[in-house]
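Box 3.1 — From sequence to structure: Hemin ABC transporter substrate-binding protein
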Amino acid sequence: MKKTRPLLYRLAAIVWLCLDAPATIADSPKRIVSVGGALTEIIYALHGEDNLAGVDTTSLWPEAAKALPQVGYMRSLSAEGILSLAPDLVLVSAHAGPPSVLEQIRSAGVPVQTLAEDYAEQSVLNKVSTIAALLGKPDAGDTLAAQIHADFNRLAQLRSQFSRHPSVMFFMAVSHGAPLVSGRETAADAMIQLAGGVNAIGDYAGNKPIGSEAIIAAAPELILLTELTLNAVGGLDKFYQLPGIAHTPAGLNRRVIVMDTLALLSFGPRSGRTALELAERLQNPANIATAP
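Predicted structure (token representation):
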């Protein structure tokens, strides 16, 4: 019985790969350009880093990934920069682009493998299984998938014990113009829900700018930030001085949670553990850090 779930993961990977992969992908690519922080992290978790020829700027973890050749930001790629690394496979998140650049790469004879980005456990498992199949590391993929599934199971068990679901507002950016916050159908919204919280601005979808009056009206009990966002604004003291923040329950009680950007938003190998940590901090104000 212990082999049942890994076998299902492996079968899902075969179906996933057959449906999406171009026929020209080599059986075992030796030079992969990885575009997407979660994808790069999975490659390292599967001990496939020797196959990496380059990564994009969202590939921040592990630290060693930052030393690899960079191909730019995932949404504004350059075909020339990627092709200069002589890859035999370009592995990209569904968020990567522009599409014309990906088509240029395909036209140059280099396979492009696109992995879907859904904000759920199954999406993470699909990415793991697909990449493990590409690397020829199915057993390592099974092991990693089992670890990830165990993390999400622990999260579900903890969440089932919650009697309250605090409202949380996630700030994507705060350093230029009106703050940018995340509504429905975003990675932040999914993480808040996984952790047992309620998105304080879940009445609209996507990332949108917000004014001080709307921040006050949303009345979040807690505010969630990434380290990158906090560093951009200049620290917590300056964040609390932003218009509207001090007039929210979160601002009045200084309840701001700061987390690692990639771990929080990428839906990769650490997502279950990160959601578990967030859940614990949402339920217990004593766990809310005052600094990143």
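Summary of the box: The longest helix spans residues 138-159.
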